[in-house]
Design a protein that fits this description.
Structural class: mainly beta
Strand content: 25-35%
Distance between the termini: 82 Å
Number of helices: 2
Strand order of the largest sheet: 2-9-8-5
Largest sheet: 4 strands, mixed
Length: 133
């Protein structure tokens, strides 16, 4: 991340607007997060979801809450990783649009299911000893 993107991400996560740094931006739309919900994850299984926004969205960040252990949010809006602990994890993401200076927020809850246990294979029966003559 460039120093400018880092500064703007910090400003956005603090709830500040950087319109003086960036100019006026677009006036015919507002930045919003359009991802409706998140699919469940499973402990030990790779997870990947790309968050989406309308009218821009240059840097994504966690505003509040915690992601499941093993999952991270990249500043490009990609949630990825391998979860290590089951449970439900509520959090709020934010996205900052450099052109307009707008920030949008949305709350999600990511449920991580326990690892799927493999079905035990039937144990073959040992053949009974043959009677000796």
């Amino acid at each position: 991340m460039t120093p400018r993107r880092l500064l703007l991400a910090l400003l956005a996560s603090a709830g500040l607007f950087a319109t003086q740094l960036l100019g006026s931006g677009c006036s015919d739309c507002g930045t919003s997060i359009t991802t409706p919900s998140l699919p469940d994850a499973v402990v030990g299984v790779n997870y990947f979801v790309e968050l989406n926004s309308d009218c821009g969205g240059d840097v994504w960040f966690i505003q509040s809450g915690l992601l499941p252990p093993g999952i991270s949010l990249q500043d490009t809006g990609k949630l990825r990783g391998v979860p290590t602990l089951d449970g439900t994890y509520p959090f709020t993401v934010g996205v900052f649009d450099f052109d307009s200076g707008d920030t949008a927020y949305k709350g999600f809850a990511l449920t991580v299911e326990p690892a799927q246990e493999a079905s035990p294979s039937p144990t073959p029966l040992e053949p009974s000893p043959s009677p000796t003559p």
